[in-house]
Every structure is written in structure tokens, then in C-alpha cells.
Amino acid sequence: MHEMANIVIVGGGAGGMEIATKLGHQLGRKGKARVTLIDCAESHIWKPLLHEVATGALDIGIDAISYRGHAASHGYHFQQGAMTDIDREAKQVILAPINDDKGRELLPARRIDYDYLVIAIGSIANDFNITGVREHCVFLDSTEQAMEIRTMLLNKFMRYASHHQLDDKIKIAVVGAGATGVEMSAEMHHAVEQLRGFGYKIDSSLLEITLIEADERILPKVEKEEISASVAKELTSIGVKVMTSTRINQVTEEGLHTSEGEFIQSDMVIWSTGVKAPDFLKEIGGLESNHINQVMVQQNMQTTRDPAILAIGDCAACPQEDGSWVPPRGQSARQMALMTADNIKLLLAGKPASNNYVYKDLGALVNLSKFHTVGNLMSFIGGGIMVEGKIARFVYTSLYRRHLIELHGPIKGTLLMFAKGISRIVHPHLKLH
């Protein structure tokens, strides 16, 4: 009897989850392959929502998707663990042991067999080897880090509400004015307003947020400068200090030092600038990688040195016909994921992975909490269409709804949307624990 092929996906972000779900439905349920998803965490949160987790605006108890539960319902298997290496000769993924909070081993190091491996680990913020960043900054790359930021923020807000002097301010610096930094800056102001509803004597005027960007404008990756200007104007109006053309060369416990010799005092520094793949991916298993640790792939997402290993999303360096590289965007990761699932089915059928990924910029949307939403749609058509206000907000929320439908199907996905909406009405708008 022919043994089923093992398809292993490492990384349970949006791209990894969508590959696992699609192949689980089409192959796993039908006994045509064994599909396994591996991730360090126990549950999935859509990464664009991490800034809401960090401020308490989103309750992961409601919005998180259990990997084990989802796997059981969608025809694939789940293994919790962190990949440390790839044994390409034995075709095995090597996982680190799992320990509890006291350092006791719960699961030993393991090896997972694969016939085809997909690396979908995503990216982390790039510290650019700047002195003090790793020691004195907090990051927003994972649910665990978002929860850490939430605890720190709420502790500062609550302590301030009871002990503050009238002249004091909570000083927070956000380095990197991409979508994450911009949305985080606005969401913190919203969180302060929500705290007033819990009886705390605090308002947004007591919060001093400085948004710092090395480029000459915020949202430098967004093509339309009108969007950057609109967002900068709205941030300024709610009290965020926007600093562009400002480079940080050192971070200390007291704050940030710029290359121009300026010192920016800060009680907390949130580092959200730059993109790179995690350090352990650099030449993992002898695979080719670039200077930011991305795995080098062909346009069909197969790695340059091993056709049995594919990589997608932010951790993959995918070339285009014009010599450019696919940018690290959520939309490209999703498109790569669906195409890669199709290519794996071709490979299982003994055919070449003939689908090549061609990036088309569908636009960008920025949501400033309750204050403002603005963006650009269909950028690949004559520069796109600029939208803002309620229309932009509707499109922005539709992206998450589409993600839910991809993972759960149209019926269950729609029911989940209604359930989440009702929960937001019934439960407090800010989670304080």
C-alpha cells in the first residue's frame, strides 16, 4: 500500500493557516496526504490586529483561533514547537524541546518527517544592530509580545491615574511609522479614552506619544503621498507628535538618541521599524538566504537549493520579472499561500510546480482606531483609488472577515462575525486582565 505523503507547514500566521486549511480540505480529509502545521503558539491571531491586543481593545480569549481545534475540524494535524533546523538529507524538521515556565521539560526535541515542507514563519522588526534596541525596546511581532505591551501600558495608565502629578505625562515613543506604528499610536489614545469609562482620572492629554520615522514621510511604503499627509494630519490632531527624517543611533533606559544629537525622553519605546526574517532562518539547512535572513525562492515559491522545500510571505525573497522583489505585505503572503497550495498538489501528482507568483499591489489601508480610516485600492490600475472614512473602514474590516471565511468557510465564518459583534456589545470595550 502506498504511504501517504507528508506535507509540513511551519508557521501558523495567515499564510500558513490558509495553506493548511486548503490542503486539509482537499488532501487531508480525503486521505491523499498527511498535512501538519507547526507553530510555537497554541492559537492564531491575525497579525494586523496585534496592536489592538497590545492596548486591550481586542480580547484574544474571543478572537484567537485554537490551532488544535481548527486542525481537528479541517483535516490537518497540529504540532506545537519551534523549528531549530532542517535535516534535508533525512527530510525532517527539527523542533526544540518545550519547557514550562519553571524550565521543566514538557516535550523533548522532536523530528517531523516531510515530503514537502513550506516555511511560512513571517518576519520580525529589524533592530539594524542599533545599540540598546534589544535591551530597552518592546516589539510587536507576536501575540506574546503584544500581551507584554498591554500589561506594561495598562500598569502605567493605572498607576498614573492614582499617583500622577499634574505636570507629568506618560511618554511613549514609537519607532517606525509604517502601518503598525501608525495604528499603534492611534490605538493607545483610544485606550486612554476607554479607561476613563472604568473610573480612572486620565485622559489623552496626559499621554505623550512620539512617532519617529527615518524616512521623509510616514507610511513610506504607501505610494500615494496624499494618504501619508492625511494620516499625519489626523495623528497630529489627536496629540501624536510626528517626527520624520529622524534616525535613532542609540536607545537607553531613559530614552532615544538621534543621529542629529537630539535626545527623546521616553518611559516606553515600541520598536516597529524594518523587516527581517528571524535570525535562525539564515542559511537554515544549507538553504540560500539574503542579508535579512529571507529564504531565497523561485517565482513558484520553491527554494533555490531544494525543490521539496518552499517558502512564502515575509520570510521568503521572491524575485519578479522586472528584477524587483515581492514586498513583505499581508496581501502578498495570502496570494502566495493559495498559489503554493496549488503547486504542492501539482508536485504530488508528479507534475512541475508551474504556477508563478506575480505581485499586484491591491492597495493599502490604515485604520487609526475610531478616529480615521484611509487608504488606496487597486494600486496596480493607474495609481489606484483613494478612499477614506466609512468606506475605507468597511473595506478594512472586510479584510479580516475574508480571512475568517477562508479559515472557517462561509457559513461558520459569517456566524463567527456575528458572534464577535455581539460579544463586543455585551463585554467591556477594553480588556484589563
From TrEMBL:
Pfam families: Pyr_redox_2. Its cofactor is FAD. GO terms for biological process: aerobic electron transport chain. Keywords: FAD, Flavoprotein, Oxidoreductase. Gene3D superfamilies: 3.50.50.100. It comes from the Bacteria. Residues 6-324 form the FAD/NAD(P)-binding domain. GO terms for molecular function: NAD(P)H dehydrogenase (quinone) activity. Belongs to the NADH dehydrogenase family. This is FAD-dependent pyridine nucleotide-disulphide oxidoreductase. It comes from Shewanella halifaxensis (strain HAW-EB4).
